[in-house]
Amino acid sequence: MRAARTSWKTYALGAAAVAALLSSTACGPDGGTADGAAGQAPSGTASATGTTAPAGPSPSPTTEAPRPGATATATATAKPSAKPSATGSGKAPACGDQDLSIGTSYWAHDSGQHLLITATNVSGKPCTLYHYPFITFGQDVDSPLPPMESPAKAVATIGPKEKAYAGVKLFLGGERTTTYESFGIAYRDPDNNDDGSPIDVALSDDVQFVTVGQKPSVTFWNLSRSEVEGFVFKAR
User: Fold this and answer.
1) From CA 168, how far away is CA 114, in angstroms rounded?
2) Per-residue b or e along 131-169, where b marks 16 or more CB atoms closer than 10 Å to that residue's CB
3) Do 76 and 177 reside in the same domain of the chain?
4) Rounded distance between C-alpha atoms, residue 229 and residue 232, angstroms
5) Of 55, 89, 123, which closes a domain?
6) Which positions ≥6 away from 63 have C-beta within 8 Å?
7) From CA 128, how far away is CA 116, in angstroms rounded?
8) CATH number at residue 189
9) pTM to 2 decimals?
10) Residue 52: how many CA atoms within 13 Å on its side-chain side?
């Protein structure tokens, strides 16, 4: 099209010359057909190509080129947002009696005034220990020990075979005390208004019995034993 326009603008041909040119173009084996094709095909092809090419091929590179980029961006954006949302929305359910094995021990440098409670996840799935354990001694199952105001930095979610800890301040020097060979424990479930009745747990062989004073208290569940220990021995 561009060549045809240039030739018509550049040369002024008479009617005879034009007729001669047309007749030679029509009859010419190569040139006539090539020029005719160049005049028609480009326009037809240009129309077809121009309609299809710009709409098909042209957007095709334009669409296909951004697509990898767009896919990469979408994937890059989706992955980070998926992870937090999976972590946030897929929180582990509250631990129950059936999920845990409870162990008890004294600290080596302590004189039996504090008890360490270790909860081990014996199920095949993660679960969460909320707040602090509801600990009771003797028959007073309706009055669990108050917390030592020691909220953990994070919720204690434990996977299979993982552990969480809580410490109990049993008595202070000079207090009147009572001896127990077991204790009751229950767990907080924020999705359930009824947190259940404490189940009786026997003390470990190395503990055998505990001496409990007038104002025992307990820490919040914590994934770090050292943090529990640090708080228990600072609490009064």
Assistant:
1) 5
2) bbbbbbbeeeeeebbeebebebeeebbbeeeeebbbbbb
3) no
4) 5
5) 89
6) none
7) 19
8) 2.60.40
9) 0.61
10) 5
Q: Do 222 and 161 fall into the same domain?
A: yes
Nearest to 131 by CA among 112, 103, 150: 150
Residue that is written with structure tokens 């094995």 in the block: 101
In this structure, which amino acid lies at residue 162? Answer: E
Cβ-contact 106, 116 below 8 angstroms? yes
> Is the confidence at residue 216, as pLDDT, over 70?
yes
Look at strands 114-121 and 163-169 and give their pairing: antiparallel
State which residues form the domain around 52: 2-89
Which of 37, 63, 89 is where one domain is finished?
Answer: 89
* DSSP β-ladder status, 217-218 and 114-121: unpaired
Confidence bin at 194 (pLDDT 50/70/90): low
Counting the structural domains of the chain, the total is 2
Instruction: List Cα–Cα distances, 16 to 13, 20, 21, 33, 134, in angstroms.
Output: 8, 6, 8, 21, 113
Residue 89 pLDDT class (50, 70, 90 cuts): very low
Q: Rounded distance, CA 133 to CA 147, Å?
A: 9
The DSSP annotation for 198-213 comes to PEEEEPPTTT--EEE-
DSSP string covering 63-114: HHTHHHHHHHHHHHHHHHHHHHHHHHHTPPPBP-GGGEEEEEEE-TTS-SSE
> Which candidate, 219, 208, 118, places its Cα nearest to that of 167?
219
